[in-house]
Structure formats: C-alpha cells, structure tokens
Amino acid sequence: MKYLALTPQQQQRQQHPRVALPFVSLVLIAALSACSSTPPTAQMAVSKAAVERADTSAAVDAPVEVAAARQKLSLANAAFANKDFELARRLAEQAEADAALAESQARSVRSARALAEVREGIRQLRDEMSRK
To answer: Are residues 95 and 69 in contact, defined by beta-carbon separation less than 8 angstroms?
Structure first.
C-alpha cells in the first residue's frame, strides 16, 4: 500500500470545513433570530384580510370558526403592540387558518343545504308522479 503525505496546504484545506461549520451555524442562527425579531406586518395584513373576508362570507354559516379567527387576530394585534413579534406572527397565522376553516365550513353548510333542497324537490316530483 502506498500512503500519500499531505502538503501543508492540503492539511489546511482539510481543517477548514471544521472551522467553517461553527461560523456558518452562528450566521444561520443570527439570521433566524433576526427574522423572529422583525415585525410581521405582512402576515398581520394578510390575516386581517382573511378574517374580514370570512366575517362577511361565513359569519352566518360558521359563526364559531369566525369568532375564533377574530379572537386570535385580536390577540395577535395585542402581541404586536407589545412588540412580541413571534407570538404575533403565530397568532396571525392561526387567525388566517381559522378564517380559511370558517370559509370552508360555510361552503360545506351551504352545499349541504342546497343538496337537501334538491333532494326535497326530487321527493316532491316523485310524489306528484305517483299520484298520476
């Protein structure tokens, strides 16, 4: 077997990844922590729009879900005012999800209602046909 001796430059290149890993880790941690300390203004705006949309389209058919979305948006606004941006971001995301759930639930309720009406119409037609 033949062993190759490493030159000093090759040895330095081999050690370089070990030195770079902690540095890269620190940079990533700093970047992630910077993200959590920035105000989530875009998320707040998106969540507010989603809750308002659900409030107008789903309040009658999914009142519980709309109320949950409103409550979480209110808590997100309070956290934002207290500069707890991480909590505000999480609550705003939850409010957006609750608003989407409310809209979906309302669509489901309206579809079930329409299906019941169609079935009732079919039943009435059958009754009329059986009388003749």
So the answer is: yes
Does 5 score more than 70 pLDDT? Answer: no
pTM of the model: 0.66
DSSP track, the chain: --PPPPPHHHHHHHHHHHHHHHHHHHHHHHHHHHHHHS--HHHHHHHHHHHHHHHHHTTTT-HHHHHHHHHHHHHHHHHHHTT-HHHHHHHHHHHHHHHHHHHHHHHHHHHHHHHHHHHHHHHHHHHHHHH-
Please state the domain extents for the chain.
Answer: 41-107
- The single-letter code of the amino acid at 23 is F
| Structure-block tokens of residue 66 | 């709309």
Amino acid (one-letter) located at 44: M
pLDDT tens-digit readout, 66-108: 999 999 999 999 999 999 999 999 999 999 999 999 999 999 9
